[in-house]
Amino acid sequence: MKTGLSLEEAQSLLLSQAAAVPTEQLALTQACGRVTGKDIASAENVPPFDRSPLDGYAMQAADMQGAGAECPIQLSVIEEIRAGFTAQKKVTPGTAIKVMTGAPIPEGADVVIRYEDVKREKDSLFIFHELNKGNNIVPAGEDVSKDEVIVRQGERLTAPRIGLLAAIGKAAIPAFNKVKVALISTGDELVDPSEQLQVGKIHNSNVHSLGARCQQLGAEPLYFGIVPDEKDVTAERMRQALKKADLVITTGGVSVGDFDVVPATLKQIGADVLFWKVKMKPGSPVIAAQKDGKLLIGLSGNPAAALITFDLLVVPVIKKMMGLCQQLPMKITAVLANDFAKESPQRRFLRGKLEISYPTNRIRLTGNQQNGVLKSMIDCDVLIDVPAGSGPLMAGQKVTAVMMENVLV
Ligand code: AMP
Ligand code: MG
C-alpha cells in the first residue's frame, strides 16, 4: 500500500484501475448526458439536396444580366413549390419557379431571388437587380457531408450532437451504460435529514451532496444509507454495495481516530488497498482499495472535504467508467481578488469563483475555507491550487486553479 501520494499520483493510479462500463443501444430521447459508445458517421448529406434558404424565385443568373431599377427584366413564373415537394418542371431561360424556404432547387435554376426584391403581376415576374450564380442556394451537405464523423466515441451526448444524430437519420445509438455509484455514510453521529436531531447528532449531508454530484455527471447514485462506526456492519454494507454498484464510495472514518473503521474494514473484506492519504488539504486521509475488480474509495467525512476530494479524485474515475475521453479537469491561471491570511505548509485547495475580467481573469474566494463548511462550495467553480510551503496569499497574486464547473463536459 502506498501512502502520502501527490494528487496527480493518486488520480493516475485510480484511472489506471478504472475501466469503461459496457454500452447499450439507446433511443435519442433517452440519450441526453450519456456518452457515445462508437464513432458515428453520416450515411447521407444534410441537407440531402440543394435547397432554398428563403421564400423567393429560382431562376438562371444569366437571365438577370442587365437588370436595374429603371430597366427590370421580365420572366414568366411556370410553377410554385413548397418545402417537402419537388418541381415537376425545369427552369429554362426566361422562366422562374416560385420556391418556399426549404424547397429543393428546381433543375436548371442556379440562383434564388428574395420574394421582397421582385414585383409579380399574374405570371410575370420583374427583376430589378442582378445576382451571381449560387446566390441564395444552400448546397447539399452544407451541415454534414456523407461519411463525415459527427460524434466520436467518448463524447458527451449534448443537445447539438443529439440533434445532428437525428438529422442523419439515427433514432438510436450505442451509448455507455449509466455508472452505478454506491454511497455509504459512516458515522455514529449521523441521522437522515428526514429525522429529528437528538443531542450530539447531525444530519447526513454528504450522501446528498455526493449523490447530487453523481446525478449532475450523468451517473446513477445508489444510496446505501448510514452505518455506525463498527467494522462488521460497515463490512456487510460494503459487500452489499459491491454486488450492486460499479464503484463504492464511503465518507467518514478514514482518519486515525479510535472509531475510524474504514481502513480496517477494507482489509477485513479482503480488499487490496491501493493507497491511503494524499498530500493535500482538505481531505488528505482518503483511502482507495480494490475488490472483485471494483474500486472502493473512502473519503473524509467533513462535508467540504468530501465534496472536494470527490470532485478531484472520484469524478475523473466516474468519467473514465462512463466512457468519457476527457477525464481530468482543466487548469487555468488567474489573479486572486482577495487575501488569504493563512500559511499553507501542505498543498491546499481553496474554494473560489472565477470572474471573467480584462486584462486578467480574477478568482474571488467564496468564504470560510474550513473542512466542515459546505456553504463556500455553493459558488465554487474553481479550486485554487496553493503549493505546499506557501505563505499568506495577497490580492493581485497570480494563482493556478482547477476548473470545477465543467462537470458536464
Ligand atoms: P470523520 O471523517 O468521520 O472523522 O468526520 C469528520 C467530520 O465530518 C465530523 O465532524 C463528522 O461528524 C462529519 N461528518 C462525517 N460524515 C458526515 C456526513 N455524512 N454528513 C455530514 N457530516 C459528516
Ligand atoms: Mg467519523
TrEMBL record:
Catalysed reaction, written as an equation: adenylyl-molybdopterin + molybdate = Mo-molybdopterin + AMP + H(+)
Residue ranges annotated for the MoaB/Mog domain, each copy included: 182-320
EC supergroup of this enzyme: transferase
Pathway as given in its UniProt record: Cofactor biosynthesis; molybdopterin biosynthesis
UniProt gene name: moeA_4
Protein name as it appears in the record: molybdopterin molybdotransferase
Keyword Mitochondrion set for record: no
Organism: bioreactor metagenome
Record has DNA repair as a keyword: no
The EC number(s) this enzyme carries: 2.10.1.1
One Pfam family named in its UniProt record: MoeA_C
Entry-linked SMART domains: MoCF_biosynth
